[in-house]
Amino acid sequence: MIKKKLFKNLRLALVGAALLSTVVAGCSNTNSTSSTASDKKVTLKMALWGDDEYKYMTETNKIADAYKKVNPNVTIEVEKIAKTEYDNTMKIRSTANQLPDVFPIRQANLSLYGDTMVPLNDLKATANNIYAKETMIKGNVIGLPEAVFNEFVFYNKDIFKEYNLEIPKTWDEFIKVSQTIKDGKKYTPLALGLKDSWVNYPLNEYMPMLEAGDGQYYNEMATKDDPFTKGQPFYDAYTKIQKLYDAKVFGDDPLGYGWDQQRAMFVAGKAAMFAAGSWYKSDYNQNGGKDENLGVFLLPTRNTTSDPFYTTAMTEFFWGVPKTSKNQKEAKEFLEWFFGDYYTQLATAINIKPTMKGVSYNDKFFTQAFDGVDAKSVTVFYDDKYNKVKNAMKFDVNGIGQQMMAGKTSLDSIMNDLNAQWKKARGN
Amino acid sequence: MLKNNVKMQKNLVLVTFLFIPTILISLFMIYPLIRLVALSFTSWDGLSLTKTFVGLTNFKKIIFDSPEVWLSLKNNGIYFVGHLLFIPIELFLAFLLDNRVRNSKMFKTITFLPYMINTVAVACMFIFLYSSQDGVLNSMLQFFHMDKIGWLSDPEIVNYSLTGVSLWKFSGIHIILFLAAFQSLPKDMIEASIIDGASTFKQFYHIVLPNIKPVVEIVLFLNVRGALQIFDIPYVMTSGGPNHASETFTVQTINTAFQYQNFGLACAMAIVLMIIIIIFSIIQKKLFNLKG
């Protein structure tokens, strides 16, 4: 009887222990490193969001195998995180001290990571990177940009031929081309699905920089109390944008359709032009767009042909190493290797405009946009000071674009309001 | 001795069975709530290792210096009123579906179907329905030689369009809840009223309605909570646009945290929302019980 009771109690205790161990095991932290003092075997965890990079690194030219040949003690594990989830996933991992050993940061978030990442100032790869020194945070290079994107206007060659149009060289010419297509009443001149506010970033976000001829113009704005005043680059750029919006060249109701429909319209040949970065080309092809009809030119924002022709260069995928990594030395060595021959092959294979000195780039499609134009690139970069003001006043240039398109508030009123909010945010 | 053993065994079983739910509730509800409250008193960008204590600054900012937050609550109000006005219709539909129409089973399934579809899918479906470029609704209007309507682009209309989607999606669950309440009513009460000569309306108003009061209260509470916390429909369909015209309180909170990197303020907003829901629910409950 006693034996039976004991057995019963023991069984209950075992059940409890099993449950407890399950929970403890579930909550336990798995370490990415298995090391011994003498022969250190290291696993470097790497995360990224780019589809093309991931495919290249895990299928076409396996990065783990390639690095194993150079450093047999280091194993590379590549993880792909969905593009839309990437930023938040990294933030969550950062708070949980679970950041991968090597990962790219989106430029928009770079200043956020200022205190989180290891400085890469001493790497040879940093010295060889064309843009690294232009994108420092608090005096340190915390990420090495992998690619640089220019902004273009993609256009349908057949439609341009039909209306006998030439590539516009100034802002007024650009509006005139749009107007001519609009007058034909057959096509939407410029597809701009403003229901998704971000699609107007080539206009509302980048044009003030082009007007100022300075990719860091927003950073300069952060040092002023009233950067939205008449005569300032921001105001002048927005006056030009308003002129384009007033020409109503985006279809019946651009605020009523979004990015998906914008893409569909352009691929189907219902729209003549489409403003986006070089990244859009692969999207166009994936959605069935044909290269024969596709042309490309740089957005001409200048007033006259004698003015300088500025175009933006947006650096992206800033590869860095977090301070929480237990393998910082190995991770930095890996980055040094990554931005060598492997990078040259990667850049060629996935056709990105390289950021490293000596890596050639010969994309005939995009080169045509620069033919006959003395374009000057301005490198887009947002620093900590600007981000602080932006976040404090919830500054949303793309939202302002929607407001301008709605046409219910005058530009002067919008700008006065922005000046007041900006001053207050700076004061705080 | 034997009594003690039995008691100990009982306790052990209780502890064993309660262990996991307690851990889960502590881990996923109580701990995050405590963290939420703690974070609401800080200024934190969501990434830095340091969180600066700022006292009640975030709450003061929300209450006295964030007109956009209160404007977004007005948009929540449209969802609230829309669903509130729809409750009598839902009640009536549930009453009809309670074996008062032919093929009621089929209609019950149809009614509940929208609730089962993923909200993002519903939102995408309605985006195409409302679209200004070849959208179904505008095409129909044009067919009848009427002007197009900016369902999602007109700041004056957009919130009503989105409330329509919310009604389409969530009315089904309300109807099913009412239906379950009707079916739990004792049949003899209704039979007695029929013998006494009560009309269908009188049966509904004097017998059915008072007896399903607890369910109506639950639906009203769900309405307050749902309307104030509505997020997915405006976020997917308009991202709060055009120019913040359809931003709801939760969309504002998410943007404050993830777009403008102000997690402390966003946590304070979440607490303010929680308090508003509690206050609204209490007021609603009091009003509902005024008649006794």
Can you characterise this structure?
The complex is a heterodimer of chains A (428) and B (292). Chain A is of the alpha/beta class and 428 residues long. Helices cover 45% and strands 15% of the residues of chain A. Chain A is built from 18 helices and 9 strands. In chain A, the strands form 2 sheets. In chain A, strands 3, 4, 5, 6, 7, 8 and 9 form a 7-stranded mixed beta sheet that branches. In chain A, strands 1-2 form a two-stranded parallel sheet. In chain B, 75% of the residues lie in helices and 1% in strands. By secondary structure, chain B is mainly alpha-helical. Chain B has 13 helices and 2 strands. Chain B is flat, with a radius of gyration of 24 Å. Chain B has one domain (59-288): MetI-like fold, CATH 1.10.3720.10. In chain B, a hairpin with an 8-residue loop joins strand 1 (42-43) and strand 2. At the A-B interface, helix 1, helix 4, helix 12, helix 16 and helix 17 of A face helix 1 and helix 12 of B.
Share of helix of chain B, binned: over 70%
Poorly predicted parts of chain B: none
Poorly predicted runs of chain A:
12-38
Distance between the termini of chain B: 54 Å
In total, the number of domains of chain B comes to 1
What is the CATH fold-level name of chain B? MetI-like fold
Order of helix and strand elements from N to C terminus of chain B = HEEHHHHHHHHHHHH
In sequence order, what are the helices and strands of chain A, one letter per element? Answer: HEHHEHEHEHHEHHHHHEHEEHHEHHH
CATH class of chain B: Mainly Alpha
Largest sheet of chain B: 2 strands, antiparallel
Oligomer: heterodimer
The total tally of domains of chain A equals: 2
CATH class of the largest domain in chain A: Alpha Beta
Reported for the largest beta sheet of chain A, the result is: 7 strands, mixed
How many individual helices of chain B? 13
Gyration radius from CA atoms of chain B, angstroms: 24 Å
* Gross CATH architecture of the largest domain in chain A: 3-Layer(aba) Sandwich
**Helix/strand/pairing category of chain A:** alpha/beta
Average residue pLDDT of chain A: 89
